[in-house]
Structure formats: C-alpha cells, structure tokens
UniProtKB/TrEMBL annotation:
<keyword id="KW-0732">Signal</keyword>
<protein>
    <recommendedName>
        <fullName>Carboxylic ester hydrolase</fullName>
        <ecNumber>3.1.1.-</ecNumber>
    </recommendedName>
</protein>
<keyword id="KW-0378">Hydrolase</keyword>
<keyword id="KW-0325">Glycoprotein</keyword>
<feature type="signal peptide">
    <location>
        <begin position="1"/>
        <end position="20"/>
    </location>
</feature>
<dbReference type="GO" id="GO:0052689">
    <property type="term" value="F:carboxylic ester hydrolase activity"/>
</dbReference>
<dbReference type="InterPro" id="IPR002018">
    <property type="entry name" value="CarbesteraseB"/>
</dbReference>
<keyword id="KW-1015">Disulfide bond</keyword>
<dbReference type="InterPro" id="IPR050309">
    <property type="entry name" value="Type-B_Carboxylest/Lipase"/>
</dbReference>
<dbReference type="InterPro" id="IPR029058">
    <property type="entry name" value="AB_hydrolase_fold"/>
</dbReference>
<dbReference type="Pfam" id="PF00135">
    <property type="entry name" value="COesterase"/>
</dbReference>
<feature type="domain" description="Carboxylesterase type B">
    <location>
        <begin position="39"/>
        <end position="524"/>
    </location>
</feature>
<dbReference type="InterPro" id="IPR019826">
    <property type="entry name" value="Carboxylesterase_B_AS"/>
</dbReference>
<comment type="similarity">
    <text>Belongs to the type-B carboxylesterase/lipase family.</text>
</comment>
<keyword id="KW-0719">Serine esterase</keyword>
Length: 569
C-alpha cells in the first residue's frame, strides 16, 4: 500500500513538473510519465534525449530464445541512460546484458508552451555490426545535425549473435529473433512517437551494413508492413553473402556442440557468458570472415532464400528506397592472394566444384595480372558490390516506388573507419572512402567536438568535409521528409537526383549520385566491368549450380561482353 502511494506521489510530482513553465523534456504515456535530458545542438537549438526507454520485455528466463514481447509502460521514470548493449563478443571479451531491449528518442519537440507544433518525420536507425555486435549508442554517430533539419532520431538495440540469430527447429527456437525485435521497436514508434512530436506516417527505416541488410528484409515482411514509409539502405542488402544463412542447420548443430547443450531447458538456463563462444562459428569470403549468426529461412522474414525473394517477389512494402555504398567498401582490407572456399556459405558446396573454380580463376587471372590486384578486385565484388548490384537490378523490376542510388566517394577526415578504426592499418594509407566512412557525413562526426575545441573547423580540408556533410544531411533529410532527395526539382550543388528506375525519364535511369567534393549523376557501368562479369559467372555456379562453364574446354569459356576495366563504379 505504501509502495502504491509512493508511486502515485512521484507521478503527481512529474505531472506538476510537466505543467510548469520553461523548457522541459517530459513525455506523457497512457499510464505514466517519462522525463528526458535537455540538451543543445551545435547551433544552440534545444532538444530532448530520452535514453533507454524499454520497448520489449527483457528476454530473460522463460523469455530467452522466445518471440519479442512488447513492454507496457506503467508508472514513471527518468530516461537518462542508454540501455545496456546486448550480449556480444567484443574483441574476445563477452560484454553486454540480455536485458538490453531499449531505445532512444532524440527530438527538438521541447515543451516551451502549450501551443501546438507541427509533427516531424522520424528516422529509425538500425545499427550494423555483422548481426553479432553493436548497440544504440550514439557516441560515434550523434543526432545533432539531423535534429537541426527537424527530423526525430530513434535508435535501438536488438538481440545479437546466438541470442538473436540462432534458430533451432528441433528445440522450437524461432529464427531471426533480432529481426522480430526490430519489428517490435517499429511498432513502439508507431504507437508512441506522437508523444515526442513525431509523425507515425512519415517513418524512414535507415540501416548501415548488417542493419542495412535487415532494413531490406523488412521490405518483404508482412509483420513490418505499414510501420515505415521509406527505407535508406547504406552498405548492405539481403543479397550480400553475409546476410543470409544457407547453412543454418549446420550452424545451430555446431553451436549446440560448442556449448554442450541438447535441450531447450539447458540453453535457457546457461549463464550468458557461456552462450557466446569466444571462438565463433565462421564462414569465410576471401579475407573477410563472418560468424554464422545471420538471418535465415523464416515464414515471417525469409519465406525463400534472400536471392530468390528479391528475384521473384514484389516487396510487401513498396516504398521509396535510397540505397548505396562507399567507393571502396572493404577493398582496402583485402590482401588474400588465393580464392579459398573451404568453409563458406554457398549452397553449392561440392569439393570438386570448388577445386575447379579455384583452377578456373587462376586461368582467368593469367600471367598479366598480379594475384593481389586480381583477387582484391574480385573479392570486392564477391563480398559487397555484386550483392548490392543484384538487389538493385532485381528490385528495379518489381518496385513501383522510386529507387535512388548513390556512391559515397569523399575521402575526408570525418571518415571514422579509415581515420580511427583502421588508423594503424594499411587501409588508412590507401585512397578511397571505406566501409563506414559515410556515417561521419550523416551523423555528428566522431571527431567534431575535438576539432571544434581545437579551433580547426575553419581549416580548408575540414571546411570541405563540412560542406560535404551539409549536402548529404540535406539530401537524406529531404528524402526522409518527402521520399525524394531533391523534391520539386530543388537542386543541391546544381544537381537533381533522378531515380535509378526512372520510368518517366528513361534517359536519366540507371544513374547513381556520386557524392564527392561535388555531386554528379553517373551512368552505372558496373555490369560491363570485367570483374563483375567474372563474379557473376562464379556466382551462378555457387548459388544456382550453373557450372557448365567449368567443363567447357576445361574452363576456358569466355565471359561474353566483358572488358578488362578497372572501373568499379
């Protein structure tokens, strides 16, 4: 009885605070009140940060390895700390918590008067991290510049690795629990974002890397239908080799052996630190490796394998799509001098076929190309470029909504991957925008505050980066607001961005926006690239068992129409 009285008194105090004068961050729910933090953008604009709002019940105890259960907020709370990251193996250490399903809302909807204000569009961010790591934390990508464009930003955690992407049919463990968490976060936004000044009918799902691949799965899911109105996919699609698990049963069996469990009860009661093996179960693609926790077959999100879905199915959510990648992605990290498919995620895993493919590629390389250059360029297509190109070409056949394509080529100091994460590797010294470098030109750059403190924002190179960032933020927020990055023929840097699948103006179709020191539309020449065509041939054998070319004059058949171009556009 005393506890109930205490809660009532606290709620009354919060309501009195909500009705008091002056700027404040208070969100009123059906059965409670939440208080956030009052902050300022770099332009001194007030905004509210509501951190660590639970959107689902903690998946603990009986809820471990079960479908997502929505959280019903009842009472009062101060939302001033981000949720724990979900359990993950970070550089060999198990960190995080299973009680992690929280989200953050950043909004310039600050209560300064009782006058109504226009509701704002919403960006919902799905973090990357190979489906095995990452969190909703915004230290690397802060929301300030997006908030200045009157966009609400929502970030959230979802279950990772074995907790989110295991799936064991024999033990009644559903697959793709991480994707189900994402859908529940979107449902929370749909139900509650008006309380923060947001428009539930203008929600843009934005993902990067694995988060980008996840966003494309939601395009094809009935469970996510109506929860978003646009998608931005940055450096990842469901058609990437690391985004769909053809060998999910093998992975789950190997996992159960590693943790020495045979029943659902055993894996529900094991301590979390034993549930994420230090030595991950990995697939290898040239020099990149990925743990085998990734989306797999599932009636809700993947009724067919990812390649067949995009090839044969119209999207459930036929909404405007903005999609692209960086100029070199992971190419700067490739150093393998041989094609190795000993443990890979391909449907065609015949050992003899692998041997013939390795021999075939060596003959293709010939004596005129160095092994390093040849396999680095081929690997770039195998691991990244081909999957994106495949998705865009197939989606263009089925989407009625516009598809806008880009390539981020600006190589500047806001690029987090090159200038911080890979600072001491060879990648730092090689030219080109890497995987993740574009994030510093959409979100607050990781080094912006230090540059501002040091008085370096007026340096020539920094000014170029600031100009590029402002253009990119404007293009992205235009798309978030209207579904068109240059609406009403509004030019940015004298450029109008036409859809890649422009049916009204075919002369402008099949062009992407190259984002560099200046913006320009470029004709997509990738299908004519030698390495693209070579990988397309290999892809047909690995995924569709179309391997006759290996037996055509001992694998010397030509790649029709290919030219040996170094153009990776």
């Amino acid at each position: 009885m005393q506890t109930k009285s205490l809660i009532s008194a606290l709620m009354l105090a919060l309501l009195n605070f909500a009705n008091a004068g002056g700027p404040r961050c208070v969100a009123k729910f059906d059965h409670g009140v939440g208080v956030g933090l009052l902050k300022e953008t770099f332009t001194n604009r007030l905004y509210c940060a509501y951190l660590g709002i639970p959107y689902a019940q903690p998946p603990l105890g009986e809820l471990r390895f079960e479908d997502t259960v929505p959280f019903i907020f009842d009472g009062s709370a101060t939302f001033d700390r981000v949720a724990n990251p979900c359990v993950q193996n970070l550089n060999g250490q198990i960190v995080g918590s299973e009680d992690c399903l929280g989200l953050n809302v950043y909004t310039t909807y600050v209560r300064v008067s009782k006058r109504p204000r226009p509701i704002m569009p919403v960006l919902v961010w799905i973090h990357g991290g190979s489906f095995t790591e990452g969190s909703s934390e915004t230290d690397i990508y802060g929301p300030e510049f997006l908030l200045d464009e009157d966009v609400i930003v929502v970030t959230f955690n979802y279950r990772l690795a074995s907790f989110g992407f295991l799936g064991v049919a024999d033990l009644d463990i559903p697959p793709n629990l991480g994707l189900r968490d994402q859908t529940e976060a979107l449902r929370w936004v749909s139900r509650n974002i008006r309380r923060f000044g947001g428009d539930p009918r203008r929600v843009t799902l934005v993902g990067w890397s694995a988060g980008s691949a996840a966003a494309t799965y939601h395009l094809y899911s009935e469970a996510s239908k109506g929860l978003f109105q646009r998608v931005i996919a940055m450096s990842g699609t469901m058609s990437q080799p690391w985004a769909y698990n053809f060998k999910a049963e093998w992975c789950s069996n190997q996992y159960l052996k590693q943790i020495d469990a045979t029943t659902k009860e055993e894996i529900k009661t094991r301590p979390a630190k034993f549930m994420v093996p230090i030595e991950g179960l990995k697939f290898y693609y040239f020099t990149l490796s990925y743990e085998c926790y990734m989306p797999s077959g599932d009636p809700i999100y993947a009724p067919r394998n990812a390649y067949e879905m995009v090839r044969t199915m119209a999207p459930v959510s036929d909404v405007p799509l903005l999609i692209g990648s960086t100029a070199v992605e992971h190419q700067n990290l490739f150093n393998q001098r041989k094609f190795d498919m000993a443990q890979s995620n391909y449907p065609n895993d015949n050992a003899t076929t692998y041997e013939r493919l390795v021999d075939y590629l060596e003959r293709r390389r010939g004596g005129n190309r160095s092994a390093g250059t040849f396999y680095r360029k081929l690997a770039s297509f195998a691991d990244f470029s081909y999957g994106e190109q495949y998705f865009v070409e197939q989606a263009s056949r089925h989407f009625r909504a516009p598809i806008y394509r880009y390539r981020f080529a600006f190589d500047g100091p806001f690029g987090y991957a090159k200038n911080d994460y890979y600072k001491y590797s060879i990648a730092h010294r090689m030219p080109g925008a890497m995987h993740g470098d574009d994030l510093g030109y959409l979100f607050t750059p990781y080094n912006y505050r230090s540059l501002m403190t040091e008085g370096r924002l007026n340096d020539t190179l920094i000014q170029r980066s600031v100009k590029t960032q402002r253009r990119m933020v404007r293009l992205w927020t235009n798309f978030i607001k209207t579904g068109n990055p240059t609406p009403n023929n509004s030019r940015i840097n004298q450029t109008i961005w036409h859809p890649y699948n422009d049916r009204d103006n075919p002369q402008q179709a099949r062009k992407f926006l190259n984002i560099d020191r200046r913006l320009r539309l470029v004709r997509d020449k990738l299908p004519a690239n030698y390495y693209y065509r070579l990988w397309r041939t290999v892809f047909g054998c690995l995924y569709y068992f179309e391997c006759d070319f290996l037996y055509d004059d001992e694998g010397k058949g030509t790649i029709e129409g290919a030219n040996d171009s170094n153009n990776l556009q």
